[in-house]
Specification:
The protein is mainly α. The protein is built from 4 helices and 2 strands; from the N terminus they run H-H-E-E-H-H. Strand 1 and strand 2 form a beta hairpin. The protein is flat. This is Chromatin-remodeling complex subunit ies6-like isoform X2.
């Protein structure tokens, strides 16, 4: 059997992506380069002084508190912690950290809770 030979026209893109585009190709005559606006120019164009003061925007950073619950973070590792120890009230991320939490002396537990501002004075 003979292999068929198919003639096809070779289609090349107008410019190669690996080549550096020349400035005259990017901006034909009559077009100017695009200039970025600075933040001060954007703020002046938006007329933020006309907005109500209680509506949050880029100038006014006061906004209402988040409606999402805060993330629980492991007191030892800093990772997200789905568990907490009922005896010490420390949060932990996995079984290895749980073993460490259970082996901590009471004064260290109180220090970890004080960092989280959840310290309870045990008598």
């Amino acid at each position: 059997m003979e292999a068929e030979v198919i003639k096809a026209e070779l289609v090349l893109p107008t410019h190669m992506t690996f080549k550096r585009i020349q400035i005259y190709e990017k901006y034909p005559k009559g077009q100017s380069k695009v200039r970025w606006k600075q933040l001060k120019q954007i703020l002046q164009a938006e007329n933020y002084q006309n907005y109500p003061p209680d509506e949050p925007n880029y100038v006014n950073i006061e906004s209402p508190p988040s409606m999402h619950p805060c993330k629980r973070i492991c007191d030892i590792t800093g990772f997200e912690a789905p568990y907490h120890d009922p005896r010490t009230n420390l949060r932990y991320a996995n079984a290895d950290v749980f073993k460490l939490v259970r082996s901590l002396p009471n004064e260290y537990v109180q220090r970890y809770l004080a960092l989280r501002k959840a310290a309870v004075v045990l008598r």
